[in-house]
Amino acid sequence: MDMMKAVVMHRFGGPDVLSCEDVPKPVPGPGEVLVEVHAVSVNRTLDLVVRAGDYGAPIKLPHILGVDPSGVIAAVGEGVTERAVGDRVVTLPWRSKPVGPLDAVGMQHPGGYADYVTLPAMATARIPDGLGFAEATIVTRHAPQAFNLLRDRGGLKAGESVLVMGAAGGLGSAGVQIAKLLGATVIAAAGAPERVRAALDLGADHAIDYRAEDLAARVLEITGGRGVDLVCENIADPVLFPKAFHAIARHGRLVTAGSHGGGEVMLDVKRLYLYQIAVMGSIGFTHADVEASLEVAAQGKLAVLIDAILPLAQAREAHERVATREGVGKIILSPKL
Question: Is residue 179 part of a domain?
């Protein structure tokens, strides 16, 4: 039996539950491909929260994390015609239909913290020439969701204003750039001076350090007292969420897809109805959103922030670094290091 290296968790808990082990190399079934992994990102919710046992859906143990591996197709299963050995591909966050990470690699199925991973051929997208594996992983993980939140759910139009929370994180940094591509005025909010600088470097028109400044007051100052047309919220912090909500203009909107700040927040219902604000949550996006995001990145119009690329064997350290919130950009694991 062929073997491979993988980071396996046999129980829920802290980073110490992650163990680099020899496990059987998977074989692609009908309609599946075998991907030799080159990069996979470490995500606060879909990795750290899952590892801790606090995710909202059941996870079967033992388990291999990693929802967004990218790499090269090493083998194809019966019936696969749309992909071939040697294709450079990235993983999409669904196995059956494009509704979000509900039946996904790294969640309900073994993930990409491994030398190899199997998944349906339809759950892959080709990586355009000129785009690296780490970059493709980050783009696919966050940019399609940002397109969905800002353009599709939030209806962001050219000339409108948007407040992007967590603007130096994976989703937030994509949101800053996509909002600019859509022609909006972007106010980026982040929690440290270096993160504020990173958001400005990505093209934000204004930036706020919400740990050092009053978020709502600064937004109202920047917008002449009006507030923003749209808030893109992906933190759900009990202190920050009400401030972001208070910064929304009359007839404004709030879109959200994230809860690593706690997930339970106070909502000012009086302001909600008096200002006629719409609040929308979404985890969905389409295959077309993924392909568009990858093409934009390949054209140099969408940059990604990478804090570090670590060997697979340093998965524990990677989780510890993400938990500290000190870096700027994503942590990537690579079996090729």
Answer: yes
Question: Is 293 within a domain?
Answer: no
For residues 261 and 319, membership in a common domain is answered with: no
Answer yes or no: are the C-beta atoms of 233 and 258 closer than 8 Å: yes
Tell me: pLDDT of 336 over 80: yes
Q: Cα–chain-centroid distance for residue 7?
A: 21
pLDDT for 102: 61
Contact (CB, 8 A) for 207 and 199: yes
Predicted pLDDT at 94: 65
Task: Pull the structure tokens for residue 19.
Answer: 């163990």
Predicted model pTM: 0.85
Work out how many domains the chain is built from and give that number. Answer: 2
Q: What sign results for the dihedral spanned by CA atoms 64, 70, 72, 78?
A: positive
Separation in Å, CA 54 to CA 49, 259, 263, 318:
5, 12, 12, 19
Residue 149 has pLDDT above 60, yes or no: yes
Q: Indicate which CATH number applies to the domain containing 272.
A: 3.90.180.10
SS3 of the chain: the string is CCEEEEEEECCCCCHHHEEEEEEECCCCCCCEEEEEEEEEEECHHHHHHHHHCCCCCCCCCCECCCCCCEEEEEEECCCCCCCCCCCEEEECCCCCCCCCCCCCECCCECCCCECEEEEEHHHEEECCCCCCHHHHHHHHHHHHHHHHHHHHHCCCCCCCEEEECCCCCHHHHHHHHHHHHCCCEEEEEECCHHHHHHHHHCCCCEEEECCCCCHHHHHHHHCCCCCEEEEEECCCCCCHHHHHHHCEEEEEEEEECCCCCCCCCCCCHHHHHHCCCEEEECCCCCHHHHHHHHHHHHCCCCCCCEEEEEEHHHHHHHHHHHHHCCCCCEEEEECCC
**C-alpha–C-alpha distance, residues 311 and 335, integer Å:** 6
Write out the residue range of the structural domain in which residue 260 sits: 143-281
Query: Do residues 275 and 153 share a domain?
Result: yes
Domain co-membership, 264 together with 165? yes
